Fold each of these.
Amino acid sequence: MPTEISGGDREATRYLIDEALGYVYPGALRAAASLGVADLLAGGPLTVADLAGRTGVHEDGLRRVLRVLATRGVFEELPDGRFALTPTGQSLRSDVPLSARPAVLMLTDTTLWRPAGEVELSLRQGGSVFEDLFGMSFFDYIARNQQTAAAFHTGMAAFSDQENELIAASYDFPGSGAVVDVGGGHGGFLLEILRRRPGLDGVLMDEEHVVAGHRLDTEEVKGRWRLAPGDFFTEVPAGANVYVVKRILHDWDDDGCVTILRNCRRAMVPGGRILVVDAVIPPGNEPHQAKAVDMMLMTAFPGRERTEPEFARLLAAAGLRIARIVPTGTVVSIVEAVEQ
């Protein structure tokens, strides 16, 4: 007897086919972000012909791309055929506070896109496939490609800008002393901390070409910060009572993370604390951005997102223990670590 096909079977098949087509959407989103379509629509709806003329692309193709993005609420196709920005699409503009555009361009860059398409290869050989595709590790690649490096660091800054204020507000930083932001990029998070604590001094540590693009030169924190170019695998600036490691450990394997954490532990004053600011993967089957990011990290980086028990083991190997985990109202939490 043939197996009877139920309506549920059909729905499940349709659902999985739609999921398999999901890669089309970020490709369309990247094209719109790269072409600056949202900026062009900031003044009001435009025809596809006008948009195509201003961006130098084919009109028919652009209409098809915008139509896909309209199904996701980024743009809206009006009855007269023009396209308009939605409230969500406004965040794709380059000139708005907390613009998502740099982060979108970073996350859809070929350096992350291609490895994510090779998950099966990653599973078969174990770990990152970046070197298979690009001939070197991710960080070696961006060190040799200025354009990719700029996109990565600008994207990470934009990624962080929408969360920095909430994270800084969620933790009771000391009113005096010093805080070192280890691998702090352009200093957006350190700036937010110093704004909230007028008696606190800050040190921004990252590679020299990264800290060169810092954002700390503002009147409100004048004289309360310094740059410390360096390699956090070698050493970190000594003498602070708080060391922040924000969105860094997830880039590295356990051995690399233990090295960074040990360097921070050796450098901090007695009674100091290390704040690991990263996603803590929750148990269960509920969606969480960190679960998707973790798969991206698996294919392109040596690192991973971690659960609370995994953080506990990592810290123990560095001579530390979890004092508490502080939720921040964002994807990431603050794992506060102290000496064992």
Note: DSSP finds 17 helices and nine strands in the chain.
Amino acid sequence: MSFLRWMPPLLALFSISVTGCPGNSASNEPKPVSSQEVSVSLAGVDTSSLTPRERREWAAQVSELLSPCPDTPVSIAQCVKEQRPCKACLPAAQLLLKQVKEGRSKKEREDAFHMRFDAKKVRTLATDGSPDMGPPDAPVTIVEWADFECPFCRLMSPVLEELVKRFDGQVRLVFKFYPLSAHVHGEPAARAAVAALNQGKFWEMHHLLFENQERLEQADIERYAQRLKLDPVKFRADLVSTETKARIDKDKKQADEVGLEGTPLVFINGREVNLQLLTNPPDDLEEWVKVELELLGQTPRPAPPKPAGAQPGATDTPASASGTPAGSAAPAAGSGAAPAAGSSAAPAAGSGAARPAPSAGPAQPAQPRKP
């Protein structure tokens, strides 16, 4: 499946404030801001493009927020200046710089920082038995809960798969089921995907279901099974089996435990990606994975060369698109925060993240997903 074919509809996801299908629902405190204006210059952080006001905002924030490493209790600015051993300090300063450039509020910038670097934000996610792509021992594991009838999941899917290709051998993508009750075809589609998984054709069915999201009736699903040459008797039996329901319910229970509020729900190395704090998901997530690998002591795979004649950013931020998908409400899910348990777990790296917001024009605060 070509990634480029998905780029036009992706703008629909990036250009609206709602960034998912609504679901079923104290870290390090910054030091008080000094009344004295702060001026900061850090090696590796280019602030030349900032306005004087933006430079003041960034300088104040890197001077008041503590280093991401618990054993380095100094400000981010001091950590970078003194070249402390905390490798996350420089990426944290660069993240805050980007957030300032995008016009984010002070709170949004703090939220982005804590989401991405706060050690308390990491969860352990069970991944045993879930369909995946990429090596099982990849240093970066992306876990996604999705609903096949959710338009936002359809748009996010190729972005995540592209990360597996972009960082070949370094990223693993794990899929988990969360059919929303508001989507009448979500449950049958999830059952079809499990039935295809039982015959080794999960990703093929996954692609067909998203590509034909408007055609998910029983007859359509059986036609997709025929196209994939699945055993029809086994496929129909697995569609209605208690084992299939139990597999889906297991994923939903785990999602409820980590506080799912809507789909897609994405985690990178145990950190929830707040899509509302992303400006350009393909670029932002690629950068996130790149930094994650570096923090783990890995050398990220080099980016492939741009096609000849391609305009800068042409494959990342399309200029226009139409057809804005709307989110769908569903009954509230549990909001418990207990880590999920299992025999296999996504890596709980000490740093990792980011939810899509506009990719064109001035960044606007995204609206939270409503339960």
Note: Confidence is low (pLDDT under 50) at residues 14-18, 25-35, 312-371.
